[in-house]
Specification:
Structural class: alpha+beta
Largest sheet: 8 strands, mixed
CATH superfamily: Gcn5-related N-acetyltransferase (GNAT)
Helix content: 25-40%
CATH class: Alpha Beta
Number of domains: 1
């Protein structure tokens, strides 16, 4: 076991939301981050008088919370939207708000029962700017500069060269991704969709977790871009190129067996 994994186990815990009390904690944390701290477009605090941020996708979503063990506080949450069993024809948010290029990904041809959309990926500001995370921010700026000047050609090579900059404590985005991998494995979800901030995708890509862009930037709670990936492709790449991060997101291989086989 590598130091990244061992420090994850020492300081953090991924908690699957399986009680009404935990679900309320996730809604409260989303309200705090999206409506109060970040004040993102579409998240006006006055729309949530009970201080619980939720929508009609939560009824058919899986949720995880990230707990900081030394304090006992929940510091992050994310959900995985799965098809609505009562209304299987209901569209994913990416289909409603993303301008999808069918030559990059034709969602209509995907096995929808094996697809899930990553959404509400939030980390409280108290931990989002931890002192140690500045290395990650700096790396992301270097990668973005490379993209702007040279295109995508040398991005992976630059990330590989920058691995020496990693901290022993895993970034919180990687830990929330571990929660998504766990949910996907348990539900036999093989396809990830998302409409996310490109900066978050770059950060995940530093650990081999990047998704494939399948359309242009759109205005959806800020500038967002639609993404797609087969989970087996992502985990296989991580296993080969970012094995320490692979151990973190799969819990040392525990949540790997269901998602390596692509549809």
């Amino acid at each position: 076991m590598n130091d990244l994994y061992l420090n994850f186990q020492k300081y953090f815990e991924v908690v699957v939301v399986d009680t009404p009390e935990l679900l309320e904690s996730a809604y409260k944390l989303r309200y705090q981050v999206l409506c109060i701290e970040q004040r993102l477009p579409g998240f006006d605090a006055s729309l949530y008088p009970d201080e619980l941020e939720k929508d009609d996708y939560d009824n058919h979503s899986l949720h995880v919370l990230l707990r900081h063990l030394p304090s006992g506080n929940f510091i992050g949450t994310v959900r995985l939207i799965i098809p609505n069993p009562i209304q299987p024809e209901k569209l994913f948010p990416i289909e409603l708000y993303g301008q999808l290029d069918p030559t990059l990904c034709d969602i209509k041809t995907l096995p929808r029962h094996q697809a899930g959309e990553i959404s509400r990926f939030v980390i409280t500001s108290q931990f989002q700017r931890r002192r140690g995370d500045r290395n990650i921010d700096e790396i992301d700026r270097r990668v973005e500069k490379t993209e702007n000047k040279e295109g995508n050609t040398d991005i992976r090579e630059r990330r590989s060269a920058d691995r020496r900059d990693r901290r022993l404590t895993p970034p919180l985005a990687l830990l929330l991704a571990a929660g998504i991998v766990r949910l996907s494995a348990e539900q036999k979800i093989n396809i990830w969709l998302s409409v996310m901030d490109p900066a978050l995708n770059r950060l995940l890509g530093y650990y081999g977790l990047e998704l494939n862009a399948i359309g242009p930037l759109v205005e959806y709670h800020g500038q967002r871009r639609p993404y797609f990936a087969k989970i087996g492709d992502v985990l296989n790449r991580m296993y080969k190129e970012h094995h320490d991060a692979w151990e973190v997101v799969t819990d040392y291989g525990k949540y790997n067996q269901f998602v390596l086989t692509n549809p």
